[in-house]
Design brief:
This protein is of the alpha/beta class. The structure holds 1,3,4-trihydroxy-5-OXO-cyclohexanecarboxylic acid.
Length: about 140
């Protein structure tokens, strides 16, 4: 029985409504039961926040309590040394996920402070990227 925590950063509470051409028409709340059904032997907890410090608090709390974290830091990916430092400081693995392919978008999205400290990066697969990330952590 593995325990996985998904953390979604700013504006991902607006999935389904936000730029559907890029992020799709499904909210994370709609997707989450489908995801959980694919991993009946695991516990998948979910947390979303629009605040950088709350992502850090949650990562610190998760350390030692979860087998791994699936993190979509959203726009903080491209700015947050604090989140990267936190991932460096904790012992549990963090997989970085992006719904869109950040390497094919604007220049500022092509920089990730999180990638060097994440155990794995999944991008451009839409919401299916979260399933890949959970699978990666479970089979690790
Ligand atoms: C995102 C990509 C980021 O550049 C953007 O700021 C987001 C979402 C993604 O999942 O594709 O909010 O992380």
């Amino acid at each position: 029985m593995k325990k996985i925590l998904i953390i979604n950063g700013p504006n991902l509470n607006l999935l389904g409504k936000r730029e559907p051409g890029i992020y799709g028409r499904k909210s994370f709340e709609e997707y989450l039961p489908e995801l959980r059904a694919k991993f009946p032997d695991s516990t998948i907890d979910y947390y979303q926040t629009n605040h950088e410090g709350s992502i850090i608090d949650k990562l610190q709390e998760a350390d030692g309590k979860y087998d791994g974290v699936v993190l979509n830091p959203a726009a903080y990916t491209h700015t947050s040394i604090a989140i990267a430092d936190c991932i460096r400081a904790i012992d549990i693995p963090v997989v970085e996920v992006h719904i869109s392919d950040i390497s094919k978008r604007e220049k500022f999205r092509q920089i990730s402070y999180v990638s060097p400290v994440a155990v794995h990066l999944i991008k451009g697969l839409g919401l299916a990227g979260y399933e890949k990330a959970v699978s990666y952590l479970i089979n690790r």
